[in-house]
Write a structure and sequence with these properties.
The chain is α/β, with parallel strands linked by helices. Helix content is 20%, strand content 28%.
């Protein structure tokens, strides 16, 4: 079975449809599947629900899909860097399901592990817990959170082989690996595509059994969300 596709558009062909739920990996702008997101934009699919830690920034990442109003709902933890997101949400044009960051990560991990729900202290006594079951464990209140699964997961890896075994680097490991396990179909973009056997098995974070389609992105742009520089010393 050939998993490698010549372009992101071809990798998404026959997969996308209006109203589907998509997971997009990465943290901030680190490790986001930018090439696949651009292909989603060009596909014209609409009324999409995206599960992502954040919504990119204006003009980059999921910010592109907000510009074209292809996203109906975001399930996220942090969206403070996107003015378009804020404007659409405050205007009632975009639905938002907020999660504490650890809760979001665990909801995704639980989805991949086949665990339907779990209890956590995060969010108890806040609007996050409204309408959810609260249960007492050892004298403390916990809120029940349900697992998250998606129709498609879009992930970005530093290296991958043609069988779909993936290696991530540093911050890009925050959400990509767990999302790769929590969808009906996982599509990966990889910076370095190699042959089977060229990756040290101990370095593989996502086994190829989870990945259905792969596209190489050798010229991936490494963007900086907030550039901070040290002031020059006085002459």
């Amino acid at each position: 079975m050939n998993k490698v596709y010549a372009s992101a558009a071809q990798a998404l062909a026959g997969v996308l449809r209006d109203g589907m739920t998509i997971m997009a990996g990465g943290f901030g702008l680190c490790g986001i599947p930018e090439t696949l997101i651009e292909a989603v934009r060009k596909s014209g699919a609409r009324e999409l629900t995206f599960v992502s830690n954040n919504a990119g920034v204006d003009g980059i990442g999921l910010g592109l899909l907000l510009e074209t109003r292809q996203i109906r709902k975001m399930i996220s933890s942090y969206v403070g860097e996107n003015k378009i997101f804020a404007a659409q949400y405050l205007a009632g044009e975009l639905e938002l399901e907020f999660n504490p960051q650890g809760t979001l990560a665990e909801r995704i991990r639980a989805g991949g592990a086949g665990i339907p729900a779990f209890f956590t202290r995060a969010g108890v006594g806040t609007i996050v817990a409204e309408g959810k079951e609260i249960r007492d464990f050892n004298g403390e209140a916990f809120v029940m959170e349900t697992a998250l699964v998606a129709d498609v997961a879009l992930v970005h890896a530093w290296k991958g082989d043609s069988e779909g075994n993936l290696v991530y680097r540093k911050t890009a490991r925050n959400f990509n690996p767990m999302m790769a396990t929590a969808a009906e179909m996982t599509i990966a973009e990889v910076e370095h595509l190699v042959e089977p056997g060229e990756i040290d098995p101990d370095l593989i974070a996502t086994p190829g059994v989870y990945v259905k389609r792969i596209v190489a992105v050798p010229q991936a742009v490494k963007r900086i969300e907030q550039r901070t520089v040290r002031k020059r010393d006085a002459a």
